[in-house]
Amino acid sequence: MGIVKLIIIVLFVWMGFWLLKKFRKPIYRIKQKSSSNIMLACSVCKIHIPKNEAIIQNNKAYCSKEHLE
Questions:
Q1: pLDDT of residue 31
Q2: What is the pTM of this model?
Q3: At residue 33, does pLDDT exceed 60?
Q4: C-alpha pair distances (Å), 62 with each of 1, 43, 66
Q5: Which pLDDT value is given to residue 27?
Q6: How far apart, in Å, are the Cα atoms of 5 and each of 13, 19, 40?
Q7: pLDDT at 37 over 90
Q8: Which residues on neighbouring strands pair with residue 57, listed in sequence order?
Q9: By the 8 A CB rule, do 56 and 41 touch?
Q10: Is 10 exposed, middle or buried (0-12, 13-18, 19+ CB in 10 A)?
Q11: Higher pLDDT, 61 or 21
């Protein structure tokens, strides 16, 4: 009977750790960036820049005035 009790105790401890791991919230969370931080590729040099910093003309994004011309 001793080995059966040991196996049952080990199973309960294992289930406890498994449930704790499953339902524990992660310590670090990565926040979703808002849609204003969408990255666009420059039509000339293909460098990625934030949408709010891009120069958009004719549905194309540019990283600088030089590339717009």
A1: 63
A2: 0.47
A3: no
A4: 76, 6, 9
A5: 65
A6: 12, 21, 62
A7: no
A8: 60
A9: no
A10: exposed
A11: 61
User: DSSP letter string over 1-33?
Assistant: -HHHHHHHHHHHHHHHHHHHHHHSPPS--PPPP
In three-state secondary structure terms, 52 is helix
Q: Which two tokens stand for residue 35?
A: 């849609």
The residue type of 48 is H
* Token digits of residue 17: 């750790």
Which residues does 44 contact at the CB level (< 8 Å), separation at least 6? Answer: 62, 63, 67
What average pLDDT score do residues 31-52 get? 81
Q: Which two tokens stand for residue 23?
A: 């339902």
Q: How many CB atoms lie within 10 A of CB 42?
A: 18
